[in-house]
Amino acid sequence: MSFDSRESALELQGHREVRPSVYVYEAPVRIWHWINALAIVVLTVTGTLIAYPLPSVSGEATFAFLMGYIRFTHFAAGYVLGAGLIGRLYWALVGNHHARQLVTLPIHNRQWWNDLFYMAGWYLFLNREARKFTGHNPLSHVAMVLVFLTCLLLMVFTGFALYAEGTGMGSWQHDLFGWVLTLAGNSQNLHTLHHLGMWVMGLFVVIHIYTAVREDIMSRQTLISTMVNGIRIFKDDRP
Amino acid sequence: MPAKLETFYEVIRRQGISRRNFLKFCSLTAASLGLGPAFAPKIAEAMETKPRIPVLWLHGLECTCCTESFVRSAHPLVSDVVLSMISLDYDDTIMAAAGHQAEAILTEAREKYHGQYILAVEGNPPLAGDGMYCFPGGRPFVDTLKDMAAGAQAIISWGSCASYGCVQAAKPNPTQATPVHKVITDKPIINVPGCPPIAEVMTGVVTYLLTFGRLPELDSQKRPKMFYSQRIHDKCYRRPHFDAGQFVEAWDDENAKKGYCLYKMGCKGPTTYNACSSIRWNEGVSFPIQSGHGCIGCSEDGFWDKGSFYDRVSGIKQFGIEKNADQVGIAAASVVGGAIAAHAAASVVKRITQSPEERGHIDDHHG
């Protein structure tokens, strides 16, 4: 038990498995993922504190600015989320083909549909083994496009529309997002949509983390490390 | 042939008001409309040269709170000024004539001022049962409204009833009460929501129409921007307490006495567009928040159907029993959380019952 490199070399003797690896997520995608994740956490916490404020602060109002700072943090994180989304959509245009998976759904591809049902069976414990995918499996692909991206857009649009209510008519936020308030009917409806969107995003995050950890253990490919170093390693060389 | 109309100035001089007082009024009105001092002479000139606009004021399905508010206008004073400024030819609530005599005035005014008058509508027409639920003067109100709108140059929808439907249009809206702009679609319409609208806002809109001879700038909901472009919350004198994080936590607590923000008590100030926090009510004496009660959002579309007046998060009726967005979210989170726990448990069972070969490579070196 020396835990040194010589012992490690001995342990590795006789191992000849082939473990194919593919570079999937380029640096901008990975950086965006983690910044975006942080922004979502900050937005959820500060957003909840805006909807349900902390117990009252004592003393003169002149010397306190608690809600002000919480709201500032929320708005700043909102800008990060919005700017990140623009950057990510740009990268979908210029990045590798995996960067485009977030904005495409190959619904005309029969093999894709076959894979979708197969993977549903895998999650329902009906299929013994997961199929291999260099990018998202079709089930997570659908969730990424229809739940995550849709919800992200909803949150950015409703969020900036709510922000535009404060910046007022004539501001660029109002010019760009004022129509969302009109579409929602009134400000209370807009708040309701923003709250519902937060819950959808929260549920997505919970399922996303659960499946990422589960598949990292149970499937035949890496998941978590892929979003750190961009490389997807397959644990066997069978098809 | 349209009749020759007296100017406002001629009328008030005839009533014995001095020119000095007239000019004072012009300055006050310019200020209340948010115009600079340079506009006072323009208002004076308009009052001296433009003919008084005939206004016909109809009442549909409503409670007359708009009229009650209107007659309390302080700047300008309704009794002294507005009733002279405009030519209010028909308003069945405050006119002396009644019955057939009153209805005759309506028909006469419509012919005499065709294309010139402004139609002010308080309340809305219920459309169910061919309009039978509102039947003033022995005729469905919706028919009168359409007839009168045809000869109007513009329509003012007074209050939340005419603008949005208000309480009579609250779900399930049995009489199918419908806002004016959904019935009359071919005339310029100004919505002046509120239950009731602020008196000075009402007279301000009328003054603007008279002074400039056109509609004020309107927002996407046809509301005059000068009074409805900001939320109560944006101009609330309790706003510093909100930013500081100082809230009334219960109606009878120390913070309520200190006048802290009513956000936690369900104040709708942050979601309500109106001028209450700047113009206030009853000659600027007070407004709901100043008296210690949150705003109920009476100038917002469908404010009766958004759940409790004391809850900021709206109810959502689509889920059967009334729930708000966060209650729905918590329920969904519990279901998903439970499902994930069960799935994870099943995954662990699958994993430990697998043969080493099925688990694949990971345990190779043990096998």
TrEMBL record, chain A:
Keyword Oxidoreductase: no
Protein's cellular compartments: Cell membrane
A Pfam family assignment: Ni_hydr_CYTB
GO annotation terms (biological process): respiratory electron transport chain
Gene3D superfamilies for the chain: Transmembrane di-heme cytochromes, Chain C
Main location class: membrane
Record keywords: Cell membrane, Electron transport, Heme, Iron, Membrane, Metal-binding, Transmembrane, Transmembrane helix, Transport
Molecular function terms, GO-annotated: electron transfer activity; heme binding; iron ion binding
Keyword flag Heme: yes
Protein name: Probable Ni/Fe-hydrogenase B-type cytochrome subunit
Native organism: Insolitispirillum peregrinum
Classification lineage: Bacteria, Pseudomonadati, Pseudomonadota, Alphaproteobacteria, Rhodospirillales
UniProtKB/TrEMBL annotation, chain B:
Domain NADH:ubiquinone oxidoreductase-like 20kDa subunit, chain residue ranges per copy: 63-208
Essential cofactor(s): [3Fe-4S] cluster; [4Fe-4S] cluster
Annotated [4Fe-4S] cluster 1 binding sites: C63, C66, C161, C195
Positions of the Cytochrome-c3 hydrogenase C-terminal domain: 228-309
InterPro entries linked: Cytochrome-c3_hydrogenase_C (IPR027394), NADH_UbQ_OxRdtase-like_20kDa (IPR006137), NiFe-Hase_small_C_sf (IPR037148), NiFe_Hase_small_N_sf (IPR037024), NiFe_hydrogenase_ssu (IPR001821), TAT_signal (IPR006311), TAT_signal_bac_arc (IPR019546)
EC code: 1.12.99.6
Reaction catalysis annotation: H2 + A = AH2
Protein name: Uptake hydrogenase small subunit
Naturally occurring in which organism (per UniProt): Insolitispirillum peregrinum
Phylogenetic classification of the source organism: Bacteria, Pseudomonadati, Pseudomonadota, Alphaproteobacteria, Rhodospirillales
